[in-house]
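[stage:ingest] chain + small molecule (adenosine monophosphate)
[stage:ingest] validated
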Amino acid sequence: MRIGIVGGGQLGRMLAQAGAPLDLRFTFLDPGSEPCAAAHGEHLQADWQDPAALAALTANCDAITFEFENVPAEAVARLAEQRPAFPPAQALSTARDRWLEKSLFRELDIAVPPIARIDSQADLDAAVAEIGLPAVVKTRTLGYDGKGQKVMREPADVSGTFAELGGVPLILEGFIDFDHEISVIAVRARDGEIRHWPVVRNAHRQGILHCSVPQVAHPLQAQAEDYASRVMRELDYVGVMAFEFFVTDAGLLANEIAPRVHNSGHWSIEGAVTSQFENHVRAVAGLPLGETARLAPCAMLNVIGAFPERDAVLAVPGTRWHDYGKAPRPGRKIGHITVLAADDETLAERVAAVEALLVNDLG
Ligand code: AMP
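[stage:predict] done
[stage:export] tokens:
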């Protein structure tokens, strides 16, 4: 069976690595000349919207999936007419627009921060008067890793902000004084079965994910699973979805979903019975899902902008190295390191040893 993946970055690369033992083959549609996934499959070099390339993808592949959400809706629709294509178009279009996304959460009775839809500076002024400061304003589409966002603390921060962010549609959110951030990775099969991995505690630096640690018996596991299941059922979702939350005294507040495998699930390659990548390709291929239990205490550290000394990292017991084969550039995710241990105390020591070696360049 051959699976077509729209996008050829590290997520596509790790999907192909996970599919290889199942003898699944992969074709990547990516406009780059040497996308890093191409080392593990065929590469169709073309724009995501190129009708001839989309036709070639469906002609060659038995099922189609996506490794990022900014795929034009028409392209998804064209693919889905020809072949099973997962997740469905509505999941992609909802996840790429922060207003549609949070509106869906509200409809499903999932708690969200106070929000307002902003189409002008006047809208912004009125919404700030209602929601109060501090508040965060974000572009509705195309934001990632904290880009396209501004935190407003004083009234002076509000004036001119609509133009400053490009005069594009925005969402205003009340600033949440959260305790920490978690995500839950979930997978839904073609037959509707849903499984969840243990929730992951995430730490960011300059808006970019730095470290993810799966938690067994987190008190909000059940609530996170319930919220993820509601969204997946509503969207008739197939594949892996990540759901990010703020943990507050009042429970979870939903931040965003990603309709794909997610950086906060990379630990599952070594740390779970079945990784997020394998379960995603299983779901897309129509195979039974695998167990999602954590195998051992573990953590994932991102390698951003520059590699640490590899041999020194490998010399720390319990470490696994992932080089995506991408050219280092400030702020670019070029690899990750998984750290495993038999107990939490040893894990903390090993993570500290690896962190001391990191030379990340966040840009
Ligand atoms: P996002 O791109 O929406 O995930 O935002 C990036 C990061 O900004 C989040 O991981 C949070 O650390 C922070 N952030 C986003 N929205 C809020 C909010 N409403 N209140 C407080 N912090 C936020």
